[in-house]
Amino acid sequence: MSYEFERKHRIAIVGGGPGGYEAALSGAQLGADVTLVEGVGVGGSAVITDVVPSKALIAVAEASNAIGEAADLGVQFFTRGENARPVRPEVAVNLQAVNERLVRLARQQSEDMRAQLIRAGVRIVSGVGRLAGPGTIVVSTVGVSETGRASVGTDFDRIEADTLVVSVGARPRELDSAKPDGERILTWTQLYTLKAVPEHLIVVGSGVTGAEFASAYTALGSRVTLISSRDQVLPGQDADAARVIEDVFTRNGMTVLSKSRAASVERTEDGVVATLSDGRRIEGSHCLLAVGSVPNTSGIGLEESGIQLTESGHIRVNRVARTSIPAVYAAGDCSDFLPLASVASMQGRTAVFHAMGDAVTPIELRNVTSNIFTQPEIATVGWTQQQIEDGIAQGEIYKLPLASNPRAKMMGIRDGFVKIFARTGSGTVIGGVIVAPNASELVFPLALAVEHRLTVDQVARAFTVYPSLSGSIADAARAMHIVN
User: Fold this and answer.
1) Family assignment (predicted)?
2) What digits encode the pLDDT tens for the residues 17-50?
């Protein structure tokens, strides 16, 4: 008597960031034989050196800011000095202790994710993986360089698979004229070695990363100069939102140099000097380079395996995360999709579901919710106001200042707004912007409305708590009522 056993579908994943992690979990859930290759730690740079520690640092900055602004609400902090006279203490930040906590938190999150994969039955291989054809990964021993990047040693493992998922992420872009040294000139992955709050931090780049760290370090007590090559911070974002953030920046004492470009950044004896393209020199104690990122796609056998890349080195994928080779998928910042951890996770799940024949919904980028963790935050979803004004989408626009909200008044919130975009005629919600504290939490109702094509009247009919910041969403929707 003979027995035949059906072989399990084999999935090999290169890179354990959000995309690789979700791909591994999804494959195990569907009964596949899953192997994950990761050189730095499960969670990748998103967990260890990027999203988790940076947002934790921002949370500390928010706490520091809240203490400083408490006096506006009538809460005052005093201690007793000589002759029992009240003395107002200073708010101090122990950055070394903060950074040590951030690193521990990130490593703990990585270990928790690793444990979850092991419980799910995923095999984890420590090393650097490269493709040796559409169905093979060669794994090399791994070391970690001073910059935190994995370095390749000798080959020691070979993995055959039916489906490959590449999720190798990206790294900070470096400039020849501003080489980071990890001490005075830093990328965002190197900030967590600082032992004290920088006296004067020069931030080169006013995109999302630059704006977030400029906001955080201002709240932590640094004097910050933000060098922006555009006419406003956060280029490409909602213009009203960017204007609010820049106003808050300057009101809090930040120097914003618009339409300025850093030609070079050099280390001096006790600090740094940034030379602008017009010859101006800005002296500071430290410099943060936030000039974009580069995908980690070189030297891992992608082009040799026939996988198409963009000119920037990103992997071309379709809406189910499939590359130009049917059995190979890509997820996360190494792909040419939107570089967000939430998108990477969705790509990872979608890739595995598609590869194994499960039901999938192709990713619709217009439904993606994103957030900028400045103070206040900016959350967006769907079509933009610029697209509506350019005629790409047909919609009506309504903006409600947050200062009119009763809960905002109670909390002392002066800045921010809720803006909703609704399809002309039908009133279907097609997008929105929220600028507010914790906008990342407030935007979810708008995300649901965009995803499920709810009308402004349907949104307005949902009950909100009174008083609440979310009440402004219902108020804005109510103001856009479609008369039948």
Assistant:
1) Belongs to the class-I pyridine nucleotide-disulfide oxidoreductase family.
2) 999 999 999 999 999 999 999 999 999 999 999 9
pLDDT, residue 3, reads: 46
Q: Which amino acid is at 65?
A: N
The residues pairing with 303 across neighbouring beta strands, listed in sequence order, are none
Cα–Cα distances (Å) from 78 to 88, 349, 482, in that order, read 4, 53, 54
Q: What is the mean pLDDT of residues 463-472?
A: 97
pTM for this entry: 0.92
Task: Specify the 3-state DSSP secondary structure of 262.
Answer: strand
Residues 6+ apart with CB under 8 A from 195: 95, 96, 99
Give the span between the Cα atoms of 240 and 246, in whole angstroms. 10
Say whether 19 sits in a helix, a strand or coil: helix
Residue 396's DSSP bridge partners are 422
Segment 116-145, tens digit of pLDDT: 999 999 999 999 999 998 889 999 875 544
What letter would DSSP give residue 83? G
Strand-pair partners of 282: 274
Residues sharing a CB contact under 8 Å with residue 453, sequence separation 6 or more, in sequence order = 428, 429
> In angstroms, how far is CA 406 from the centroid of its own chain?
31
Indicate if the alpha-carbon torsion angle 20, 22, 25, 28 is positive or negative: negative
- Tell me the torsion sign for CA atoms 99, 100, 105, 106: positive
pLDDT tens, residue by residue, 328-344: 999 999 999 999 999 99
Closest CA to 385 of 402, 364, 365, 399: 399
SS3 call for 155: strand
Q: What domains sit in the chain, N to C, each tagged with a CATH number?
A: 10-48+98-172+294-365 (3.50.50.60), 185-291 (3.50.50.60), 376-479 (3.30.390.30)
Q: Cα–Cα distance between 94 and 195 in angstroms, integer?
A: 8
Query: Taking Cα atoms as reference points, which of 440, 432, 431, 439 lies closest to residue 413?
Result: 439
Q: Which amino acid is at 20?
A: G
In three-state secondary structure terms, 121 is coil
- For the chain, the maximum distance between any two Cα atoms, rounded to a whole number of angstroms, is 97
Q: How many CA atoms lie within 13 A of 100 on its CB side?
A: 7
Q: What one-character-per-residue DSSP string does 359-415 give?
A: ------GGG-EEEE-SSSEEEEEES-HHHHHTTSS-EEEEEEEGGGSHHHHHHT--S
Cα 38 from Cα 26, distance rounded (Å): 17
**Spatial distance between the Cα atoms of 320 and 82, rounded to a whole number of angstroms:** 69
Q: How far, CA to CA in Å, does 448 sit from each of 60, 234, 312, 430, 440? A: 30, 25, 33, 11, 13
Give the whole-angstrom CA distance, residue 274 versus residue 286: 10
Cα separation, 88 vs 65, in Å, equals 16
